[in-house]
Design brief:
six-stranded antiparallel sheet; 41% strand; GH43_arabinanases; Trefoil (Acidic Fibroblast Growth Factor, subunit A); 6 helices; 11% helix; Tachylectin-2, Chain A; mainly beta; 477 residues
C-alpha cells in the first residue's frame, strides 16, 4: 500500500470514530450517578392554612426523614383552588426533567368533602423542573373536564411508557355513582389525550388511589406492581401498563384495609432488593412504611415498628418518593436547608402579644396566629436594594410580599412591575416610638408609614403618639 492510500485510510478511520462519538448522546448525570438519597413530596392536611401545599423532606436511608424549609411549604399553588393535595413526583427516563402533579383542592377553604368530590376541580396542578430545586410557575391541566358528570380529578400519578415514548397519567374521578381511575397520555404534561376509563371495580365498589411501580427485570413474574385503595389496599401484577392485571392479594392480613389507610405507593430502596409500601393513616397519623423483599407477595409485607422509622417534624400525608443523587440531595439541602434561614416575625410595639400576619391574603395584626403566616424574610428592597431599603417576603408563600394598595396592605405575588416594587419597598428606620425598635417608611409615599389601625395594616401619615406606637415594631425570630 502506498503512503497516500494509508493516509486516506487513517483519515477515514478517524472520521468513523468521530462520527461514532458524535452519534452517541451524552448520558445525563442521573443515568450514570448512583442514587444516594430520597426526596419525598407531601402535604400535611387541611388543619392549617398552608397544610394543603407542597412540602419536601429528604432521607439517606429511605426510612428516616428530615423536613426541608423548616417544615414549611416549598411550592405554593397560585392557580385553581390555590391549594394542592396528593403531590406526585415524576422523573423523565433520562433523568433530566421532573414534573410534580397534584390534586387541585383546598378543603381548608370550607367547601366540604361532598362538594369537593361532586362539584370540584377537574384539573390537575403541575410544576416542572430540571433540577428539583428551581421550579416553574404552576399550571392547570383539565384532564377530566370531558368526562360526563365528572365531579373531580384526584390523586394523580404518572408512569413512562417505553413502547409509546410518552407518559400515562392516571387519576381518580368521582361520578355520581362511584369513583373510577381514568388515564390520558402526554409527552409534555400540557397536552393530553382524551380521558379513558382505566380501572373500574365491580358493582358499587369505588377506587380512589392507585400507584404503579415498574420493576427492572420483574419480580414474582411481573414487570409492574400496582397498589390501589378500593375498600382494601389491593396489590396487583402485570407485564403491561394498561391491561393484563392479576389480583395478588391485599393487606387485610396485617389489619390494614381502606378503613384505616389510603394513598399507597411503592418504592425500592436504593441499596438492596427490598421495597417499601407506604400507606397514609389518614385519621391524622400520616405515613406508615411496610417492607418486603417480594412486593408481588402481599403476605410478605411487614409493618415497620415506630423505632425503625422517623417521619420528621411535620405530618406527611399522601405524596410520593423518588431516589436522588448525592448532588441533588446537596442542592436541595443548600436551597431549603433543614431550618429556614433569616426568618423573622414582626411584633407590635404597643400590643406585644400580636404579630404581623397574613390571612386570606389580607395583612393584619393578630394574637397567636398560625406561626407560618406570621413568618417573614426581610430582604433587600425590590425597588431599591441599597442602604436601609427592604421588602417583606412571606415565608410560607415565597414570592409574595407585603404591599400597599389604596393605602391598605395585602399579601401579593411579585408581578415584577415597577409599581409593585415601589409599593412593596420600605425604608427601615429607627422606631418612631422607641429607638430600640424599627418602623417602616414607604418608598413611594415617604410621608407615610406601615402601621396598624384596629389591627388592620395601613399606610398612614403619622402625627401623634398613638400613631407612632402603632407604627413601631420589634423584629423577632
Amino acid at each position: 500500500m502506498t503512503l497516500v492510500p494509508r493516509r486516506l485510510s487513517l483519515i477515514g478511520l478517524i472520521g468513523v470514530v468521530l462520527l461514532t462519538l458524535i452519534a452517541i448522546p451524552a448520558r445525563p448525570a442521573a443515568a450514570v450517578d448512583s442514587f444516594s438519597g430520597y426526596l419525598m413530596a407531601h402535604f400535611t392536611g387541611e388543619g392549617s392554612l398552608t397544610g394543603e401545599q407542597v412540602y419536601f423532606a429528604t432521607s439517606t436511608d429511605g426510612l428516616h426523614w428530615t423536613d426541608l424549609n423548616g417544615s414549611l411549604p416549598v411550592l405554593t399553588s397560585t392557580v385553581g383552588e390555590r391549594g394542592v393535595r396528593d403531590p406526585s413526583l415524576v422523573r423523565s427516563p433520562t433523568g433530566d426533567k421532573f414534573w410534580l402533579l397534584a390534586t387541585d383542592l383546598r378543603i381548608a377553604s370550607g367547601k366540604g368533602w361532598h362538594v369537593a368530590a361532586h362539584e370540584g376541580s377537574t384539573s390537575l396542578v403541575i410544576w416542572e423542573s430540571t433540577d428539583l430545586v428551581n421550579w416553574s410557575e404552576p399550571w392547570l391541566a383539565d384532564v377530566a373536564g370531558s368526562i360526563p358528570d365528572a365531579g373531580c380529578a384526584w390523586a394523580p400519578e404518572a408512569i413512562y411508557d417505553p413502547a409509546r415514548k410518552d407518559y400515562i397519567v392516571y387519576w381518580a374521578t368521582i361520578r355520581p355513582d362511584k369513583s373510577r381511575i381514568y388515564y390520558s397520555r402526554t409527552r409534555d404534561f400540557r397536552t393530553f389525550s382524551a380521558a379513558q376509563v382505566y380501572i373500574e371495580r365491580p358493582g358499587t365498589q369505588g377506587i380512589i388511589d392507585t400507584q404503579i411501580l415498574e420493576i427492572a427485570g420483574g419480580v414474582g413474574g411481573y414487570r409492574y406492581i400496582r397498589a390501589s385503595a378500593d375498600g382494601q389496599i389491593t396489590i396487583e401484577g402485570s407485564n403491561q401498563i394498561l391491561s393484563g392485571w392479576t389480583r395478588l392479594g391485599d393487606l387485610s392480613g396485617l389489619g390494614l384495609t381502606g378503613a384505616q389507610v389510603e394513598g399507597p405507593f411503592l418504592k425500592k430502596f436504593n441499596d438492596r432488593n427490598e421495597w417499601a409500601l407506604w400507606v397514609d393513616r389518614y385519621g391524622g397519623a400520616g405515613y406508615l412504611p411496610l417492607t418486603a423483599t417480594n412486593p408481588a407477595a402481599p403476605s410478605e409485607y411487614r409493618i415497620r415498628s415506630d423505632s425503625e422509622f422517623e417521619m420528621g417534624a411535620s405530618t406527611k400525608r399522601h405524596g410520593s418518593i423518588i431516589p436522588i443523587t448525592q448532588a441533588q440531595l446537596n442542592a436541595l439541602r443548600a436551597k431549603w436547608g433543614e431550618t429556614p434561614a433569616g426568618v423573622n416575625r414582626l411584633q407590635s410595639y404597643n400590643f406585644t402579644d400580636r404579630y404581623v400576619r397574613h390571612a386570606g391574603f389580607d395583612a393584619r395584626l393578630d394574637a397567636d396566629p398560625y406561626i407560618s403566616d406570621s413568618q417573614w424574610r426581610i430582604v433587600p428592597g425590590l425597588a431599591n436594594p441599597a442602604g436601609d431599603y427592604v421588602s417583606i417576603e412571606s415565608v410560607n408563600f415565597p414570592g409574595y410580599y407585603l404591599r400597599h394598595t389604596g393605602f391598605d396592605f395585602v399579601l401579593a405575588r411579585n408581578d415584577d412591575s415597577e409599581l409593585f416594587k415601589a409599593d412593596a419597598t420600605f425604608k427601615r428606620v429607627t422606631g418612631l416610638a422607641d429607638p430600640t425598635a424599627v418602623s417602616f417608611q414607604s418608598y413611594n409615599y415617604p410621608d407615610r408609614y406601615l402601621r396598624h389601625y384596629s389591627f388592620a395594616l395601613r399606610l398612614d401619615p403619622i402625627d401623634d403618639a398613638i400613631g407612632r406606637a402603632d407604627a413601631t415594631f420589634r423584629i423577632t425570630s
